[in-house]
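Protein Record: Sequence and Backbone Structure Tokens
======================================================
Tokens: labelled as protein backbone structure tokens, with as many entries as the chain has residues.
Question of interest: how does this chain fold, as expressed in backbone structure tokens?

___
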Amino acid sequence: MAIPDDLKDVGVRLFLSVDIAGATKFKGSRPSIKIDPYASAISGIDTPWVPVFRDFFIDFPALFKKDLLHAAANEKHSTPGFASGLMLWKMLGDELVFVISIKSEQDAGCTLLAFEQTISGYQAAIRKKHPELKLKGTAWTAGFPIRNRRVLVPQHNEASVEDYIGPDMDIGFRLGKLARPGPIVASMDLVDILIGRSYQSQFHCAFVGWETLKGVFADKPYPVHWLVRKEKALLLPPWEESVCRFAQGYLKWINSKEMPEVTSKRIEETRKVLNEEESLDLFSPYLDPLNMPEQHRKIHAWLTENDRSEVLSEADFGTD
């Protein structure tokens, strides 16, 4: 059976993941339901940890949406109306994954600003009752439909579930495993968008080290970056450097006073070497079709000429 595959879905999406560190231990130390045998049937039932996560699932998306609308209104160069496209895409255990289409560096910048503000605000609120719980964030971009694909999975009720697949999606979820409370872990392409243009981001894009991500970049090391607000100091626990080598990398980055040009050059060299040695066909992310690589122009022209909107068979799936 063919899976509907939207080849006309052209553009860049920004994905943002927020997860709760310490959630497993928190839930494991408390039952989901506790009954007091000496109380009435109603007042004797307690759900010690359930409200914490229920509130997170409900309140965080609403607060993020509110913060993004405010940030977009204050960013005069953002795409009009883009903030209304923010969508909660997945709920994976204690993790929420959002997606939004972006058309400019400003769209990416103010979305990240709102994301960081929502995480910081929610963290401050939850710390008052449950200081052992901490939020951690990850952000990455994915371009469609050449490197990644949007697919619609049919359901029995005639509705469809929207999903996204591709190497950039794999990178994002791999990076999520490296997230820690405080900074936002960012993909290489997202960092390239934030520092490789004339746009002045409100974030430091700190290179903190290399990590081999299973199946990514032909299993060659991937450059890991932390996004840290320029106007905020990143306060790390005094022991963080001894338990996290990326914290060591961050302190090294601070001491080196690395300029964005150096970070951008490292990313450029990473793509060049991988393309030459592994034939990965990596390219700089483009938000403007005018900056599209020539090979991509040919592919998009072919798609347009053939008016093709979905795969024709299982064997034809994922052949870009």
Remarks:
- The radius of gyration is 21 Å.
- Confidence is low (pLDDT under 50) at residues 310-320.
